[in-house]
Design a protein that fits this description.
CATH architecture of the largest domain: Roll
Number of strands: 11
CATH topology of the largest domain: SH3 type barrels
Strand order of the largest sheet: 6-5-4-3-7
Radius of gyration: 28 Å
Number of domains: 4
Number of helices: 11
Order of helices and strands: HHHEEHHHHEEEEEHEHEEHEH
Shape: elongated
Distance between the termini: 75 Å
Structural class: alpha+beta
């Protein structure tokens, strides 16, 4: 007797209005005779399976039946389902595995309860990136498989400065930050743990070399590479005009904003003093004016003039 198959049949029946025996046989890759025998075993075990004949016939579980969901309330199940759907939108796990997990969660809700379950969802998480690419999907799937099978990968990596290096990595896991995927792994060239942005990985190849996973968790690595305290910080005073008000409110906390009578905003923040800051300020185009410090205002002006010079002939 295959207990895993019996559980799979139970979950499928709990999450479907009615299922034909042939559909179960095709999905589980067994004979019709095996399916009929399994259904009989489930009935004998106390799971009320009802059969219907005719063109719309098949098997289903009685409306009032549900698996024991222990200490989870309906609200908690709804929250769990929302989180799993969010992971599914981000392609955070193998699609088939998440489908099965969602089926199992659904099995904790009776069919009668389930009629209102999906309609009361108060929150939806959509982590689908705007940028979708078949090549990126293949890269993600190859790395996922390498992580699962503990096989070494090699690729060309481009850092923020545009420098390319060949890397040989023991992949530890994939991490989603915002809408960006990163590979965490042990770099055999650097003899240390490193993180790699997937969009900067080129020429990925999965080798046959196996490795023993190192005794460190993704959570520990993520904490190690969390927001870093910059040694070189600077106090900024920025003035946003009315047209850029919404953009400013999207980026800054209410406690950092002073609203002016003319509709403009004064923003006071403590930010890293580096090249990123200039690019960040330029992203607001003519909507922001750097009040203090004047050194940063001059750097923004210089960068804008250099950009203008590129388009001089246009």
């Amino acid at each position: 007797m295959n207990l895993e198959r019996l559980m799979a049949i139970t979950i499928l029946l709990l999450n479907r209005k009615r299922v034909q025996a042939q559909d179960l046989a095709d999905r589980l890759e067994v004979s019709l005779r095996t399916i009929y025998r399994d259904l009989e075993r489930l009935n004998m075990a106390g799971i009320p399976i009802v059969s219907y004949t005719g063109g719309e016939g098949g098997f289903e579980i009685m409306e009032s039946f549900r698996l024991d969901r222990q200490m989870l309330s309906m609200d908690e199940l709804a929250t769990l389902t929302t989180a799993l759907n969010g992971l599914q939108s981000a392609k955070a796990y193998n699609g088939g595995k998440l489908d099965v997990l969602l089926e199992k969660v659904g099995a904790l809700v009776s069919k009668a309860e389930g009629k209102g379950f999906s309609k009361t969802e108060p929150v939806m998480i959509d982590l689908n990136p705007w940028r979708k690419s078949h090549a990126e999907k293949l890269k993600y799937e190859a790395l996922s498989k390498a992580i699962e099978e503990s096989t070494v990968v090699v690729f060309t990596y481009t850092n923020m400065q545009g420098n390319e290096t060949e890397r040989r990595i023991e992949p530890m896991g994939l991490v989603l930050k915002g809408y960006t995927w990163y590979l965490y792994g042990f770099c055999l060239q650097r003899n240390d743990f490193r993180s790699f942005r997937l969009s900067r990985i080129r020429g990925l190849a999965v080798l046959h070399d196996k490795f023993e996973r190192r005794a460190v968790s993704l959570s520990e690595l993520n904490e190690q590479w969390g927001p870093k305290r910059e040694d070189n910080m600077i106090d900024l005073v920025l003035k946003f005009n009315g047209a850029a008000r919404v953009q400013a409110e999207d980026h800054f906390d209410e406690s950092e904003i002073e609203r002016q009578s003319d509709g403009s905003l004064i923003v006071r923040v403590h930010y890293p003093d580096n090249d990123w800051l200039i690019g960040f300020l330029l992203s607001f185009r003519t909507g922001v004016y750097v009040v203090e410090p004047t050194r940063i205002a001059s750097s923004v002006k210089k960068a804008a003039m250099e950009i203008s010079e590129i388009y001089r002939g246009c």
